[in-house]
Amino acid sequence: MASPAIDLLIGKIVSFLESEVSLLEGVHDELHEVKLELLTMKAFLEDAERKGALSEVEKTWVANVRDVSIDVEDIIDEFTYDTNKRRSWGPFTRAFWKTLCLPQNIWERHRIATKLQTIIKTIKDIPERNRRYGSVRIEGSTSHHDVNRIKVYGESSLFLKDDDLVGITDARRKLVGWLLSSHSQRTVISVVGMGGSGKTTLVASTFNNQTVQQHFGCYTWITVSQSYTVEDLFRVMINELLAAAQMDVPQNLSNMSYRHLVEMLVHYLQPRRYMIVLDDVWDTNLWRSIDVALPNGTHGSRIMLTTRNKDIASLAFGVESHVHQVEPLNTNEAWDLFSRRAFSGGSDKSCPPELQIIARELVGKCEGLPLGLVALGSLMSTKRFVSEWKKVYNSMSWELSNNPTLEVVKSILLLSFNDLPYRLKHCFLYFCIFPEDYTIKCKRLVRLWIAEGFVEQVRGGQPEEIAESYLAELTCRCMLQVVEREPSGKAKKFKMHDLLRELAISISEAEKFCTVYNEKETNEERQAPRRLSIQGSSGKVRAHKDMTNVRSLFVLAPKMMASSSSLEKVLPSGFKLLRVLDLKYVPIQELPDEIMKCFNLTSLNLKGTEVRKLPKRIGNLQNLETMDIRDSNIRELPVGIVKLQKLRHLFMYHFNYGAYKSFNSFQGTKAPAGICKLQSLQILDSIEAGSELIKQLQHMTQLTALGLANVKEADEIDLCKSIESMKLMECLTVKTSSVDEVLRMDALLLAPPLLKTLVLTGKLNKVPLWFASLESLTVLYLHWSRSTEDFLPHIHALPNLTKLWLCNAYVGNQLLFQTGFQKLSGLYITNFPQLNLITIEKGVMPALKTLDISECMELKRLPRGIKLLTCLQKLHLHRVPNELVERMRRKRGVDHSKVKHISDIRLFH
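The structure assignment produced for this chain is given below.
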């Protein structure tokens, strides 16, 4: 695990050597030598990770390497800090430094060079010390033992009785149907899910079905694992098939070449209907290697595979294929499975009343994961007291690493972690920063990974795109759960399974990656952490007394006391090397002045705080890339903001959650005129725009998201010129200066080609003609448009529109959805004072899943044609006439038959 840390450090050293050459006289050679030594260490560690678990001597070496890499990083961070501090000085101070403080500068470089030379000696001493006390050769015997144990655990599923199985009846019926279907061509059936989700158990239950086995002329079960060779798989397959048919196995099987093995398999399988199970497939290349040996005849042969990787399950196999995603057990099934193990020794085999609460909390920790439920149930079967149960619950990460009963759980989950590319390992561990069941948005996580330096630089690719590919891979490997998706289907919010998070915490503590503090921690005796996550709800939490090593600080305590003293307890002095500071929703009123000395800071999150103003010296933070002041009390940016030339993301809108249907649902923040000089800025959301600023915006062609408030009718020409110049724009929000101000955007000929989200707030006397060019648009929000022109004919043909929000958007009394809206999945209609009729023609909105109608007091009947919306799952009605509600009542309602196909109907009136 030290390998990814070293790789990131090598990248930092290379970047440092390239960008700071003029400042590195006297230390350049030392840094270069450190880089070479680290490259050698990285090669050893990657070899160690491939071959498996380490001996105790080798573990000591890895720990030493990790500590050395931390020391090197500290030196670089300190040197960067001093460099950035000097850059923040004015011309007079810099001149004074050059003339009078030159000896001190030389001494500083000599001090750094001495430190680096000491580290180089330490690096070279590490292997010498290991040679004195033990071999540095990686044997991998422990790893082999782990793999065998996991293989035995998986194949033991073949011998489970139906009485031992819970929650697989429907899935097994589906798989049996695919296996016994009349399709005559070879078919591949993939079963995908996270480690321990019951994939192997489900497939084994299907494989053992007597009807299934009688349907096939031959069948075999092959466990693939991560360390397979194709030739060995073929040999096992041949041995199993011939032994089952009571045929002689060739004596020279172990010496056969790939070609002869393929010929033998094809010769045997060609005339037969066969079923082959490939359990635990990790490699996308496996199919390409074995496909040639599995003949595609017309006998109806079937191949089943289990995998943790969705990319493998969705491969183009070249034949008919099916994919089954294993879902977690529901609450009742999970409780049943856990109880069978935990309380099997009791007289009535049920949970004692005094254990009910803690037992159900422990079951909830497993989130329906069968492996965890079985292992935890076995562990708790010997514990009778509530105190014992609470101890296990509160120390789950320790139990996962140290309790032999849970060893197989850790081993199976650890396989997924060890298989990750080195850069994804840090990304995975990052989730232990956040509390249990914490949901985090994709975009926030991406920005944090970039700020931490986890995202590699790829020529021609934006860091955000690279980071999103990391998220996609973690999701495909079933190591993250998608909680919510964008209208386009792209993942929007994520969370991590509790047991995977516990694994991340145990690894993180061992690797000194992150430390979590809460009100239960004493904090003082522990080593100062690199990343510190302060969690709690009482307001009594505080950080470590030594903050010198902290690079990332998260305060996740939304109920913390709102006072400056609270923040002083959380942020004692000495945190000058911070890179990430996240105080989201912490009710602080001002920032400590020391934060303006954090010259290495790349990400500052003040969203939802009570901070009223940013310090005038904000310009000192010249490495800042992301600043979030949304929903804080900051209403104006200081002039110093224009010095932040590396700033990429600036979030500063203020949303009025209590009046989200009113015209003033959101407001922007005032900014100095020079804000448009920030050429690295990609997101500017949202700004109080004056006429001069709107003119200057046309030079910010790099923007991907822009929010403008206070726009006037007279700004039309300049506004449209600016928007037209932004070819990369994906999200645009425009709001007029007042409720009566007309929003004019007719001068815009074509919308930005990549525009996906459009929010317009203000009176629209005329529907802009460019609406028809919004081919990439997925979300459209028309707020207080009060248009007299029917706008539906202008947007019905938009090919990718999936969500349409209409708030006081039309003054007519009818909405006629006559055609189009083929991809629309969500329609929200609110605050239409005169609306009394909604008509939906046949074939319109065929994909609609959510219909939300509110504040329409003249609408006394359901939309005509609602019965035609066969995909509709949610119908929510807020503040509509009682007459409309009564018509929907079960039994007596005359319109009840029109909505009985809708599973989720909510009425608020």
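Interim note for the steering committee: Residues 331-394 form one domain. Confidence is low (pLDDT under 50) at residues 20-24, 100-104, 135-145, 561-565.
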